[in-house]
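Lab meeting, item 3. Inverse folding demo.
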């Protein structure tokens, strides 16, 4: 079966990584636009680097959970396209061979001057120079609000050719990811969501499995 799975922060919640919208959400003392937008980075690059250095440190200390591992097993049995909005590497450490990071990854660094990309050091600072053009314009290789997500040229066709679309641990509030279910559903693709509770675009799904991902995903993959 051709399956497209989209994951969000909820799949990493039981690994100890805070979600965005939860009361003690990731943005606890940061306004989203201050730390996840090009404007915020231009205004205060040190604040943004601190924020992503903290995220990189927490992600390195976290371990994949049974939901991450179950999706790795699913890829052995089905033609799986695994798309994540998450910037952590828990899918890869959970055994998933291929993961499409549509919002970038904490493990990447990017030069805003020459667009060069290289593996991110654990800690990044505003003065870091680009290894290619030496400009001091290095940033996390993360897709911020107002920026075009990555790999949409692979994601839309996979959605259109899928037999099944599943959204796991995502609140359905951020686009274009929140529009995938509606797009697939209109093409007759069966859509299912696995979440602690129903998401903002719950109407776009044919089925729902409610509960913590580390329990529901292994049971669904069986
Ligand atoms: C807020 C929203 C209204 N704004 C947007 O959607 C904007 C603007 C916009 C575009 N189109 C629109 C249409 C309508 C309205 C607005 C827009 N979108 C953009 O800016 C996008 C880019 C958006 C990407 C931004 N970057 C992120 N992340 C990287 C940074 C970082 O991570 O630091 S978004 C970030 O927030 C989103 C958070 O959502 P979730 O992952 O779902 O997490 P959340 O906490 O919300 O929910 C957790 C869920 O898990 C559940 N859960 C919790 N625990 C568990 C558990 N244990 N088990 C199971 N489930 C669980 C909870 O119940 C909950 O449902 C993710 O996408 C995440 O990646 N870019 C763009 O549109 O570019 C245009 C463009 C076009 C052409 C040319 C150039 C540009």
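The presenter then showed the designed sequence:
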């Amino acid at each position: 079966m051709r399956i497209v799975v989209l994951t969000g922060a909820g799949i990493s919640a039981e690994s100890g990584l805070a979600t965005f919208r939860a009361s003690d959400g990731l943005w606890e003392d940061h306004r989203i636009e201050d730390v996840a937008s090009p404007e915020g980075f231009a205004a205060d690059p040190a604040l943004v680097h601190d924020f992503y250095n903290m995220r990189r440190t927490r992600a390195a200390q976290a371990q994949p959970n049974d939901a991450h591992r179950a999706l790795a097993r699913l890829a052995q049995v089905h033609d799986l396209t695994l798309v994540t909005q998450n910037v952590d590497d828990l899918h890869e450490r959970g055994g998933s061979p291929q993961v499409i990071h549509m919002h970038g990854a904490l493990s990447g660094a990017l030069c805003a001057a020459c667009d060069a990309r290289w593996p991110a050091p654990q800690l990044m600072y505003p003065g870091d120079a680009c290894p290619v053009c030496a400009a001091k314009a290095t940033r996390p290789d993360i897709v911020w609000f107002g920026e075009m997500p990555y790999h949409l040229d692979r994601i839309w066709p996979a959605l259109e050719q899928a037999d099944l679309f599943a959204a796991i641990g995502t609140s359905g509030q951020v686009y274009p990811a929140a529009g995938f279910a509606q797009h697939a559903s209109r093409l007759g693709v069966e859509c299912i969501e696995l979440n602690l509770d129903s998401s903002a675009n719950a109407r776009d799904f044919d089925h729902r499995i409610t509960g913590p991902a580390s329990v529901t995903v292994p049971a669904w993959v069986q």
